[in-house]
Amino acid sequence: MGEMNPDLLLKLRKTDLHLHLDGSVRPATLLDLARQRGAQTAQLESIFRAPPNGDLKAYLERFDIVLPLLQTRDALQRTGREILEDCAAHGAMYAEVRFCPLLHTKEGLMDAAVVEAALEGLAEGRQTAGMQARLILCALHGMDASQADRIADLAIAYHRHGVVAVDLAGDEGRGFDLEPFRRAFGRARDAGLHVTVHAGEAGPGENVAEAIETLGAERIGHGTRIFGDPKAVEMARENHVGIEVCLKSNLQTGAVAQLADHPLRRMLAFGLAATLCTDNLTVSHSNLKDEWLLAAHDLSLTDAELGQLLANGFAQMFMDDALEPLGND
Ligand SMILES: [Zn+2]
Questions:
Q1: Out of 96, 201, 210, 291, which one is annotated catalytic?
Q2: How many domains in the chain?
Q3: Ligand 1: distance of its center to the CA of 221 in Å?
C-alpha cells in the first residue's frame, strides 16, 4: 500500500457535494462588485487571507462582508458561473452548489429571481466549465416555519430546473430546534427533493441522529462529531447517509482542533459514506485539490480509502434526470 501518485490523484475528476455559493465568490469578483457599488474594498482584504484555525466567529463574520455584494441578479449569475469554472479547474466534474435565497432579497429581488439568477449562472458554468452541477436551497437555524416553507416552495418550483435538495444550515451552536423545519422538509421530500442537513459540526453527534429522524436527512454536512453518538453512527451506516466532509473548514471553525483528530478515516472504517467537499472556496481558502491533498498526505489515507471517498461522492450525488431550461413554463 503505497501513497497514491499525487499526479494521478489530482488528475482524477471528482465531485464536490458541499459548496456554499456566498462563501465561494472569486476574490477578483468581490473587488469588482464592491467597486461597482462604490463600496470600500478595504474590509475585503481579510477575506483574501486564509482564516485563522479554531475561530468559528471569525469564520462566520466573513459571510457578512460578502452578502451585501450579492444582492443583484448579475452578481448571483456571475458567481454561479465562476464557481463552476473554479471547481472544474481543481478537478471537479460535478458540484452541488448551495445557498439561502432569502439572504439575497435585501435590495428588492424577489425570491424567485434570486433562484433563477443562480440557476442561470450554473447553466452557463456547466457550458463554460464543461461539468455538471445542481443547486441546493438552504434554510437557516433561527428561521420560522413560514420562512422554511418559502425555501421548500422555491425548491419545489425549481426542481425540474436544477434544484435537487433542501439543506438546513446556519449556526448549529445556537440550538438545534428542527420543529420549524419539519413540515417544509416533509413537503420537499414528498415532491421528490432530497435532504441534507448541517449537523454534528459545532453541535453534538446526537444532532446527526435527529436530522435523519426528524427531517429525513439523506446526507449530513460535516458530521464531524458523529462518533459522540453511537446511535447516529448506526443510523447513518444503515441508511447509507452521505457524510460531506470538509477538512479545511473543520479546522477553521474549530470542529476539530487539529487534522490528526479528524474522524475521516474512522468514518470510512465504520462504513460511513464519507465524501470530500470544500464548503467554501473563498471563505475557507480551499479547493478540491487542496482537500484531497490533505486527505492523502496529511491524513495519510491509503489508495483504497481514497478510492472509497471518490466512489462515495458519485454514489451520493443528488442529480436526477429532470433538467429543463428556465423560461419554458
Ligand atoms: Zn456548509
A1: 201
A2: 1
A3: 6
